[in-house]
Write a structure and sequence with these properties.
With 473 residues, the chain is an alpha+beta fold. Strands 1, 5, 6, 9, 10, 13, 16, 17, 18 and 19 form a 10-stranded mixed β-sheet that branches. A hairpin with a 5-residue loop joins strand 3 and strand 4. The longest helix is centred in the first third of the chain and has 68 residues. About 5% of the residues have low confidence. One of its GO terms (cellular component) is microtubule.
Length: 473
Amino acid sequence: ETLSSVNTQLIGVQQELEDTKSTLAESMSNKTQSEQQLVELTQKNKALMHRLVQANQARRDLHNKIQDMKGAIRVFCRVRPPQKPRPSGVGETFKFPGRETGGERTKLNVYTTVTRVDGRKEEHVAKHDFFDRVFSMTDGQADVYREVDDLVQSALDGYKVCVFAFGQTGSGKTHTMQGPPSMSFEAPSTGDVDMTSSKDRAPRQLDTPPKDAGIIPRAAHSIFTRLTAMEADGWRSSCTAQFLEIYNEKPRDLINAASELRIVSVGQGQGQKAKSSTGTDRDVVVQNWSATPVDSTASVLRLLKRAVNNRQQASTECNERSSRSHSLFRLNITLEREEETLEGESRTVTLNGQLNLIDLAGSERLEKSKATGPRLKETQAINNSLMELSSVIGALKARMKGKKAGRGPFVGFKNSKLTTLLEPALTGSSKTLMLVTLCSDAESVAESVNSLRFARKVAGCEAGKAERNVSQQ
């Protein structure tokens, strides 16, 4: 009986052993299948990531091809609403053909009164159809930025981008680039925090630009919003901001007043090479220029407030808040990401973009501004630098005409600090947009005509194709 009981227990143990072996075999089989599935999923994920990288690259290429088709140097026009009541019997100076019917907003008609030899007055209309976009007096800050945003995207894609505002004093350049004098430099918070941050970056506050903000705050908001999405996709980013002004032909750091700045052209082998339509490989470097790390719209606004307080401004007969210098805001963007090829090789892709936003001081007629003393010196420096800019544009156009014959006039980029600074923007090293601003007051017609004449010259310039700054290691 005892032996029988032991045998029964033995049989039970043997059965449990067989069950355990069966379970183990099944588990091993499942493990093998899981490992195989893991390998397959890993390969599939790698292929999908490769396709995503290719898709993003295709998107960047297509986006920038579209920008190139629009022209290396694009020209926009914005008309400021009248600041004074229109005199009796004087009609509107500007009209916008096609706007009422929803047509293409690229045309501007300018109406002036011409006095004939016999004393009779005739209305003359000049039609301007060379613009890439025309903004009327009813278009707001958001309407203007919406058309600029594509170029801001190009800076994130690794290109140099330059947007500069040109026009007579009081025509709205600073308002367009920065915002009105009453603008708050506090970025309203959405109450949300980006939680996709890594060990390399703290959570980014998702703030928004002020409602009446100009291009600089809106561009900062657009860039940091996009960087947040790119970081969630594996990119690492770092940005620095710089501000300077050219005052009486002297560059000044608007963030670190102690810096002694020098604007110099460097040739091949001395710095980053830039192809120039003048036939030389040259780039422009600002030596000793301080760069401040920024990671949000709010951080840019804090620097902008500091720069505005340090910038040379004064009240004149032409403008209550007249900028007495040319100013440049630069945002340097570096993006890095580790990528793996289908062959299993690892590489680091680096994009270096640069956004330059320039607010040029306005031209003034001395008989109108009644400038004396320091204001007179400032006005002369401003007008001389703008005259040199006009000469450079004229020389570039003449060089284009003489290109086939292998000749062309000298282009005097070094004749002023402003033209030296703008050389990369005018010779194909960057994607460039000029925004000409006009006053709609009747007394400003002559200055508006001069601004339009300059805008036409810029629109007729051909710059080279901007190169993307990307490296792979």
